[in-house]
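From the pipeline queue, job 12 of 40. The input is one protein chain; the requested action is below.

Action: predict structure.
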Amino acid sequence: MMRAMRRGLIAVALFVVLAIPASAGAVQGYRAECQTAFCGGVSEDGSRAVFPFYEELTEGAERAQVYERVGGVTRALVPYPDDPPARTYVNLVGLSADARHAFVSTNLALVPADLDGGGTDIYDVFGGVPSLLSTGPLDTQAEPGFGPMSLPMFFMGASADGTRVFMDSLFEGLVPEDTDRCVDVYERFAGQTRFISTGPTATPSFPEPNCDMASYDGLSSDGSHVFFKTGDHLIAEDEGGTDIYQRVGDALAMLTTYPEIERNCSDLPWFGDASADGTVVLFSTNIPIVAEDQDSTYDVYKRLPDRSYSLVSRGTEGGIGPCGFGGDKPVALSADGRTAIFETAFRLSPEDADSSVDLYSTDDSGAMSLVTTGPADASLDEHVLFPPAWPADVSDDASHVAFETRQPLIAADEDGAVDVYLRANGRTELVSTGPLGGNAGTGAELLSISGDGQTIAFATRERLTDEDTDRKMDFYVRRPNGLVRPGSASSSIKRSGARRTVLISAESIPPRMKISRRASLLPSGAVAVRLGCPKAEKSGPCRGRLKLATHRQGKSVGVERFRIAAGRQMRVSVSLHGSSPAKGRLVARVRGADRLGNSAVVVRRLALRRN
């Protein structure tokens, strides 16, 4: 099953993105490519979260970084070289299904073979080890002609296990078979780079120096079925126009080969999604393929394993419209290929009382159900300038659909900002909310949903939990049916075992308390020790316990708790058990923790003096 993916990684690709209907990405465990400055995702089982962040969340993580949060522990994934550029960037662009393969775009040279002067490259970071992906036998590793900001290749997708990676190349061919300077599709597998968007009768659709821009569309979960679109003629059966191709190994076939029908428009098909095995394909076209389709606007179809076609967007006849404009858009397909999610402006349910675009779910029986609705749905007419009208992501079986909307669909949503919702089993739930609210008028962005549909990742500047101490963009996860721990702050878990909204991008640097070398024996018999909370502590105050002993492995002779603001010092008095220690020496053991539950132990020998 391929997930809804929002393209918009760089300005060069932006025009292409805005000009096409909403599309879905491949079954790769990564559901939402970066549409804005923030990105991130969760694993299929919801146990692992990966996200980029430009503040240091762990010690020594450096500037721009991609983090992994699992089992309550945050870890920096990208190993910095010894001499990084003055300005660095590391962008997360994809994940494998288990989120162990993190695909990043960066100007850092993470391996010795990367010698191109700080140009942008695509890497696979697996187990903390980076592998260069954006290369090939013709890669000279010369400094890029466009300078350090050069983007020779774009990550487009990966197989579920992360071993097969697909990229679009710009301007330069990386293998001898690629003889033009046009956009083409490549596969990187087992250290080899392969040219994908070619065929036995490859003939350009435009004379030089013009190009057809071949575009990656998606792949099956195992990466065996690769889908791409091109106007070039790659096989003898291609009679011209833009077509969706499927490559399985060395076998190449056109998917948009229709029965002999009268065509009043040029075929402009758009790929949507595919089943897990790649045999069922969801797409849209302005060509009426079956008799039931009586218009020239876009309709959504399935291409079935027997090569027949089934109309998905039934009941959406809009008359003869302008060729190539308007109509329905494919969004996602379940892993078994039976359930499809699509966008349409037509009212296919009694609950749909507006004329704007909505998301619908339909299965092989033809039954339609409205997805983008809720008990407080005011049926407002909303019309967007650019697709997708409903940024969405779905579970493997397409029974759980997460989406963004400005419309308050439940009573608890009291603002007009963009929020993230979940529709499952006929119920609508607000996702982008938390113990501190969710109605501050601050928008939220859907990032991904886990394969089981139980964990939703989103980003927002709004403070939703106590652990969020600023108004900057942060990464959250929510598990509607209960507790989630793909990186939950330990303090929030202790306070609320049923907390469903968890801050993932929480700082994970423990406060290392400062301890004075000398302690004072007070007239009362207590011992005073001066402690300091680090000035750099972002999640203060420092809380903890000071324990005194006669030697490092000795039993405690006194314990006292403390609470100290960041950057401040405090004299903490500890009442001793029994007489004063001999030889005037003690050992202080201090465990300091911040409000997020990050903790560290510092031990120091003290010279005891009488006051």
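Job complete. The chain is about 0% helix and 35% strand.
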